[in-house]
Amino acid sequence: MSEDAPDRPPMVQFMRALNVPRHAKVSAAAGVGFAVVLYGFFVVVPAVLPGATFRGRSPFLYLALAFVAAVTSAMLLTTALTVVSAVRLAMRE
Length: 93
What we know:
Layout: H1 10-17, H2 20-48, H3 59-92
């Protein structure tokens, strides 16, 4: 192999330059936290507090909705953080 050949594909180098793996980890943690707060507010709190109205639906349906909220918010936050990194990298160079 020649010395100019990169050891990784260009897309991987691009993703590393934008710090995408770190953004994905941070966003996944934030997404899970957001889902836990949503589930707690809409399912746990009404079931525990006296006088609060409890919806008759299964908590498992809300758990599936919390999973969707976690994944969606994590993807959105990852995209936003990566765009910010790309803009900063473009301005620096």
